[in-house]
Amino acid sequence: MFKINKVFKKPHYLTLQQNNLQEAQKEKNALPAIPNGLWIKCKHCGETIYNKDFNANHKVCTACGHHYRMNARERIDLIMDTGTFKEINTDLKTVNPLDFEGYEEKIADTIKKADIAEAVVTGYGKIHGNDSVIAVMDSNFMMGSMGSVVGEKITRAFEFATAKSKPVIVFAASGGARMQEGILSLMQMAKTSAAAARHDRAGELYVTVLTDPTTGGVTASFAMLGDIILAEPGALIGFAGKRVGEQTIGQKLPEGFQTAEFLIDHGFIDKIVTRDNLKLTLSRLIKLHYS
Ligand SMILES: [Zn+2]
Question: Domain 4-14+69-290 is classified in which CATH homologous superfamily?
Answer without folding.
Answer: 2-enoyl-CoA Hydratase; Chain A, domain 1 (3.90.226.10)
